[in-house]
Amino acid sequence: MIDPTTLDFAKGGGLIPAVVQDADTLQVLTLAYMDRAALDETIESGEATFFSRSRGGRWRKGETSGNRLKVVSITPDCDNDSLVLAVRPMGPACHLGTTSCFGAEDAPGLGRIARLEQTIAERAAADPATSWTARLLAEGPKRVAQKVGEEGVETALAGAAGPDEEVASEAADLVYHLLVLLRARQMSFQDVLDVLASRALPATHAD
Q: Which domain holds residue 126?
């Protein structure tokens, strides 16, 4: 995951700041500090462990509340004196009960796409009689694809002649059904982002 021996703990008096970020929504959750032992424990356990400057010792996030942080990756900065921890939180990251220590909003901006994907995944196990998402998934990709087509037409019609509010509403329906289709195909929006990233590469003379 990371080689702790490459990090400069001495610059911060034995501590290194760690920005904690949701691996899916990319929302910044909190800022904490690690000493070498806390980092070693994090790597070994797969759960974020920090050094509390107020308590003067190590603590594993969520050991009391249960709101643990499952670590996906640890990335150092260019000077090797700070870290970004990409995590999947098991509950609110802030002791005040909010998703993030930086404001009360949950998954702002494009993070809402990832949050909607999580909701769709949860609804997949629901009763199709009570959940539209579960019903669509139970009917299979062809049925979901049909709905994507219908919503695409409605979005296009709204875009051609409707007010902005209607365009936004129809586009939201289209995005939702597109995410359900990806789920039905055992795909995710990350697959779409990967294609977009590949298309953003610098053009060559052969293009």
A: 110-200
